[in-house]
Amino acid sequence: MSIRTTTIAFVLSLLALLCAGFSSSELNDYRSGLDKLGVGDFQGALIDFSKAIEIDPEEPQSYYYRGLAKAKSGDFQGSISDYDKAIELDADKVDSYGSRGIAKARSGDVNGAILDFNKAIEINPKDGNAQFNHGISMEISGDMKSACIDWEKAVDLGYAQAVKFFSKNCQ
User: Fold this and answer.
1) pTM, entire model
2) Contact at 8 Å (CB) between 31 and 64?
3) Which of 14, 25, 102, 109 is the most buried (most CB within 10 A)?
């Protein structure tokens, strides 16, 4: 086999791997949704991710990102439903638990948020973001001692935003 044939075969294999699980129209809607989410067009992103879900209702990423679009639009209950579905389809995705935890906290379910951050930390103990948000939830619940422990762990994990909270509240 020539180098050119090998290179073409490699590129085609790589493309197939990158697009695995997505049909071409779903991939277009998904990419369009990501683009719209990135520029703050949350309603447009919602529409695109909903189209991607219609095409493949078993793809957890589409639910996750539609949940983000809903949360950014202020629809925390709707985002929680989408994160629930993303978790049902992929129970090991840390981001789904973390985002659902934030949405729960924003909608007043602090205990539910704490449980979601616990799960995110269980899946990835080195996730400084989850540790930080767990600390925020502990602060909201009135447990400053636990909040400070969480923020210190987040600082140790390199999560820069935690430095300010730890310095301001825990020394």
Assistant:
1) 0.82
2) no
3) 102
Q: Give the model confidence (pLDDT) of 137-161 as tens digits.
A: 999 999 999 999 999 999 999 999 9
Q: Which of 91, 120, 144 is the last residue of a domain?
A: 91
Quote the domain boundaries for residue 119. 98-171
Token pair belonging to 128 = 């400084």
Tell me whether residue 1 is in a domain. no
The reply to whether 60 and 129 lie within a common domain is no
pLDDT tens digits, 14-70: 334 344 444 455 568 889 889 999 999 999 999 999 999 999 999 999 999 999 999
142: left (phi over 0), alpha (psi -120 to 50) or beta: left
Neighbours of 4 (CB within 10 A): 8
Which tokens hold the place of 37? 């989410």
Pair 66, 131 in one domain: no
